[in-house]
Amino acid sequence: MLDNWLPFLIYALFAAAIPASMIALSFVLPRRPVSRTRQRMLPFESGVSEGAPGTQRFPVQFYLVAILFIVFDIEIVFLYPVAVVLGDVGWFALGAAAFFLAALVLPLVYDWKKGALDWN
Q: How far apart are CA 87 and CA 94, in angstroms?
């Protein structure tokens, strides 16, 4: 029975050891004082000059493309296990994957026809 749980236990130990070691190191390692110069206290925005807050608005297409990216990224994550067990499960896995792809591709086609992906 331990053979089945051993990989999980090793993973759980690593998952607990990494944050615990970071917290312990934050108490052990000395802190260096940070000099509070005027230049250091200014906000840094990757070289872009700071404008008035709220003056730049993002178009709705930006959000639609972002949501579509997330949806299709999640699709790939869910298709990977199907590809792994396709030989064992057979036609049922292929049919389920086809249904899943159709459920995600049909809204994409709808969005494409409505012009949600056009940046003009």
A: 10
